[in-house]
Amino acid sequence: MNLLKIAVFLFNVQFVYLLNTYFQSYAKEEVQKQAARNVIERLIGHKVENISLKINFTLPLNYFKILKTNHTDILLIEASNGVSACKAFQYYLKRFCKAHISWDGNQLSSFDGTFPEAQYEMQSSSQIIYYQNVCTHSYSYSWWSINEWRQHIDWIALSGITLTLAPFQEDVWNEVYKDYGLSQTDITEHFAGPGFFAWQRMGNIRGWGGKLSHNFINFSSILQQNIIQSLNNLGIAIALPSFDGHLPVGFAKIFPDIKFTLTEQWNHFPMNYCCPLFLDPTEPLFIDIGKKFLTRLTEKYGTNHIYFSDPFNEVQPHVSSSEYLRNVSTSIFSIMTSVDQKAVWLLQGWMFVKNPFWTNELIESFLTAVPQGKMLVLDLQSEQHPQYNRTHSFFGQPFIWCMLHNFGGTLGMHGSLELINIELLSASKINGSSLVGVGITPEGIHQNYVVYEFVLEKAWNYKQFNVKKWIKHYSNVRYGFVSKEVESAWVLLLKSVYAFEGQQNIRGKYTYCRRPTLKWKPWKWYDEKYVRIALHKFLLTSTNETLYFNNLFQRDLVDLTRQVLQNQADILYLAIVKNFKTKTNITHLSFLCETFLELLRDLDTLLGTHNDFLLGKFLESSKSLASNNAERKQFEFNARNQITLWGPNGQITDYATKQWNGIVKDYYLPRWSLFFQKLLSSLEQNIPFNQSQFQKSVFEEVEMPFNLENKTYPIVSDGNSIDYSRFLFQKWNNMNITEP
C-alpha cells in the first residue's frame, strides 16, 4: 500500500469517527423513534399502527432494514437513526407500493393500507447526505411559517437527508450588535428584508428591503427553535452560522483605531445599500466578536458541532498571498474551536468556481490551514463545474459532491441525469478521493423535482443506474398509473431537456421573462420536437380518469405545456428581430408582435389553472408574516422586487424571474407591449430604435409601478389544466409566422 492510499485510509477512518462522535443528533433512540413515527403518521394516518420501528445506534451509519412477511400484518423497520427509518419507509413506498413523495405533493393512491411482502436492507454510499445552498432560504423559504416547515422537514427526513443549514441568525446578531454599542439606527440600516437575508449575510448588500422589526426577529427565533428541535429529533444534523467578518458600517465609529475594509460594490448596488465592513480575520477584535456570537448562538440553539462560514462568497480577498489566506482560515476556525472543541467548518466551495483569483496555491493555503478532517467542503456545482479534480480532492479535506442546478428559483425544464449518473461514480473512484457524501444545493426549489429525486437516490447508492428504466419507474409511481405513452414521454424528456452536458450558464432567463431588447440570443441544447411530442403523449393519455384527476399529472402537464409555449415564444422573438432589422413589412411585424402578446395571455391563463404557478400565493404568504400594514407593504415589496428588479434600480433584473400566473400578464406582457410599440414607432417614423430610452421608459412605466403596487392575485387555481393544455397545444403546435 503506497503512502497516498495509507493517507486516504487514515483520513476515512478519522472522518467516520468524527461523524459518529460529533455530527449525530443529541436526541436519544426513543426520541428519534417517536419523531420518525410521527413523520410516517402524518403521511399515512392510523395505518402507522401496523409498522414496528426500531432505532439502533449500534448499526452502521445511515443504514436501514425492512422486513414484511406474509405471516404477519406488521412491517418491521430497523434503522441507525430516525432519518434512516424515514428513508426506509419512503423507499418501501416507492419500490413496493408504487407511491411517490415529493415537494410538489404526494401520490399515495396506490397505497391501499396493506403492506406488501418485502425484505431489503441498505447502507448509504454517503456518510453525509446534504441539502441547501445559503441562498435557498431567501429564494424559497423567506415567507414560511411552521406549517410549511413541518411539511418540508418531513420531506427532508423521507428523502434521507442527514445534514442541512439553520435558516436564521439575525436574532443573535441583533443582541451582539447592541452589546458592542451599535445604535438602533445603525442596526436598522444594516439588516436587509427577509427576501434578501442571504446576500446581507454574505457581505454583498446591506439594508435593502429592510427595516427588520422586533416582531419578525422574535418570530424567526421561535421558528428556528422549532425547526432545529424537529430536525434533531429525527437525527438530522444542523450546521449553524459562524462569524466570517462582515459587519455593519457603524462599527467603524465605535472602533476608529481598527482597520476595516469596505467590501467591494456588488452588482452595482448604490452605496447606501452596498459595501458593509469587512473586519480582517487577523484582527483580535475578529476573534472577540466571533466568539461572542457563536457562544450566544450555541447556548440558544444547541449544536451538532458543525458551523458554516463563507468569508469570500462573491467577495474577493483584498490580499492575494498564501500567508494571508492561511491566517484568515486559521482565525475563522479558531473562533469555532474556542467555543466548541469538536467544531467542524462547513465551507461552500463556490468562491473557487471560475474565479482566477483562487489559484491552486492559494486554495491549498486556505484549506490546509485547518486540520485535515475538520473542514467539510461543499463542491457546490459538481455536475457542471467540479473543483475536486483541480484541487486534488480539496487537498485532503473531506468534500461533498453537490448538484446546484438552479439559480434564483427560476422555472424551466433542464437537468443532466445521464451525466450525473456517470460523474458521481467516477468521483468516488478517484485515487486519493476524500469524497464523503452527496448533496443538493439549489438556490431555489419547487422546480424539476425529477432531477433532485435522482440525485438523492444516487446519494444512497453511487452505482450507475439504468436511467431510462429509472425514469419510467419514476413516471409510474409519480402518477400511480402505468402508461406506456407517459413512460415514452418521460424518455423523450430524458433525451432532451434533461440531457444537458454543456458549460453554458442556465439561469432560467428565458426570452419572454427578460427585459426586452433586440440582442437576446435564445439557445437550446435539445431538439424541441422531442418536447412537443412528449406533450402530445401526455395529452393522449390525459383522458384516463386516474390521470385526469391526478394533481401531480396536472402539474407536470402545465409545466410541459409552459415549456413548449416558452419555446414558441423564442421562435416568435427571433422572427420579430429579423423582420425589424430587414424593415420590409411593418404590417407583418405588427402581426408577429400581436401574436407574441397573445401567446403570453394564453400562457398566463394556463399557469392560472394550477396552484403551483400562482403569483398570488407567493405575495399573500409574504404578507401573512407581517404584524401591521407598514410591514405588509414592506414584505410584499420584498417579494415583488426579488422576482423582478432585484435591487433599487434593477441591479440583477430578472435573475429570480418566475413563470407564474399574474406576473406574466401584469409584468412581462406590458414590458413586451411597450417594446413592440417603440419598435413599430421607430419604423413608422424612420428613426433608430433607442434601447436606452426604452429601458428608462419600461422602468418608469411598468417595472417600478409593479414593484410598488399592492394588487391582489388569486390564491386558488381557476380552470381545468388538462382541457386548457389540450386547447393550447392544438392552437400553437403548428404556429404559422410566415409572411402572407
UniProtKB/TrEMBL annotation:
What range(s) does the Alpha-N-acetylglucosaminidase tim-barrel domain occupy? 130-461
Q: Where is the signal peptide?
A: 1-18
Q: Which residues form the Alpha-N-acetylglucosaminidase N-terminal domain?
A: 34-116
Mind listing the UniProt keywords for this protein, alphabetically?
Hydrolase, Signal
Q: Which InterPro entries match?
A: Hex-like_dom2 (IPR029018), NAGLU (IPR007781), NAGLU_C (IPR024732), NAGLU_N (IPR024240), NAGLU_tim-barrel (IPR024733)
Record-linked Gene3D superfamilies: Chitobiase/beta-hexosaminidase domain 2-like, Glycosidases, N-acetyl-b-d-glucoasminidase
Record domain Alpha-N-acetylglucosaminidase C-terminal: where:
470-731
User: Pfam families per the record?
Assistant: NAGLU, NAGLU_C, NAGLU_N
Q: Which GO terms describe its molecular function?
A: hydrolase activity
Enumerate the PANTHER family for this protein.
ALPHA-N-ACETYLGLUCOSAMINIDASE
Q: What is this protein called?
A: CLUMA_CG006297, isoform A
Q: Which organism is it from?
A: Clunio marinus
